[in-house]
Structure formats: C-alpha cells, structure tokens
Amino acid sequence: MNELNKAEWHYQLRIRELSSDHVDVGIAFSNIGTIYTDRGEHKKGKTYLRRAFNIFRRISSVDDLNVTEIDFNLASVYSHVENTKAALKHKKSVTNST
C-alpha cells in the first residue's frame, strides 16, 4: 500500500469515528480531496472538498483558514475540470479573505 493510500485509509477511519460536524472530519474530507486531486481524479477530489467546505461553513466563521484553504483548492479543481465560473467564484473568496 503506497503512502497516499495509507493516508486515505486513516482519514476514512477518522471520519467513521467522529460526528459529522467535528472539525477533524472536515480536515479529513479536505485531505482526501487533496489526495484525489493529486492523483488527477479531480471530480472525486471536488466531491470531498465540497463536503469539507460545507462542514467548515457550518461550524466556522467565514474567514476561517480552513475555509480559505478549501476555497483555494476548489478553485484549482474547478479550473482543471474547466468550470471557469466556479473557479473564479472560489478564487474571489480566497482573495476577499486575505
């Protein structure tokens, strides 16, 4: 099992152990999304990043660093899947929060 697969397995385990609104679940979803995008599986990565984004929007303030990081990652994913409008929306959110 390579390192990315091990990391994904541990993040999935963490997700099952905690409540859906726990900050660590949001971090795990974000990290799994990053793993998938690093593998070139942008649609799957986007799914996990959106789940993380929704958790952090529910439990954090808008200017939370986790929200900003996920916005940045989503902008990158959307540009890879050629959704310019969504990419610009997330890029604008990153710019506004810094």
What do these coordinates show?
By secondary structure, the protein is mainly α. The protein has one domain (3-97): Serine Threonine Protein Phosphatase 5, Tetratricopeptide repeat (Alpha Horseshoe). 81% of the residues lie in helices and 0% in strands. The chain has five helices and no strands. The protein has helices spanning 3-17, 23-38, 42-59, 65-80, 84-97. It is flat and about 35 Å long. The model has no long low-confidence stretch (mean pLDDT 83). InterPro entries: TPR-like_helical_dom_sf.
Helix-strand layout with pairing:
Blueprint: H1 3-17, H2 23-38, H3 42-59, H4 65-80, H5 84-97
Helix pairs in contact: 1-2, 2-3, 2-4, 3-4, 4-5
**Any idea what the CATH superfamily is called?**
Tetratricopeptide repeat domain
First-to-last CA distance: 38 Å
Uncertain ranges: none
SS class: mainly alpha
Give the integer mean of the pLDDT values.
Answer: 83
Order of helices and strands: HHHHH
* Strands, count: 0
Number of discrete helical segments: 5
| Tally of separate domains | 1
Q: Provide the β-strand percentage band.
A: under 5%
Radius of gyration: 13 Å
Topology-level CATH name: Serine Threonine Protein Phosphatase 5, Tetratricopeptide repeat
CATH class: Mainly Alpha
Biggest sheet descriptor: none
Helix content: over 70%
Architecture, according to CATH? Alpha Horseshoe
Tertiary shape? flat
InterPro entries: TPR-like_helical_dom_sf
Pfam families: TPR_12 (PF13424)
